[in-house]
Amino acid sequence: MAKKDKKTGTKNINISKPVATALVILSCIVAVQIATFVLSYLRGTPAAKSVLARTKGNSKADFKVTEYIDFQCPACARGAKTLHEITVKYPTKIYLEMKYFPLDQSHQHAMISALYAECVARQDKFWMFVDLLLEKQNLWAQLTNAEPMFREIAQAIQVDSDKLNSCLMDKGVEETIFKERDFGKALGIKSTPTYFINGKMVVGTKSLQEELDKHFGVSVDVPGGTSH
Amino acid sequence: MCQEGRAIKVFFILRVLIGGLFIVSGFEKLVSSYQNFLYVVQGYDLGNPFLEKLTAWVVPWVEVFLGAFLVLGLWLPLALRLTWVLTIAFITVVAQAIVRELPLEECGCFGQLLSIPPRGIIIFDTLMLITLAVLIVYISKTSYMSLDRYYLHKK
Question: What domain range includes position A135?
Answer without folding.
Answer: 48-216
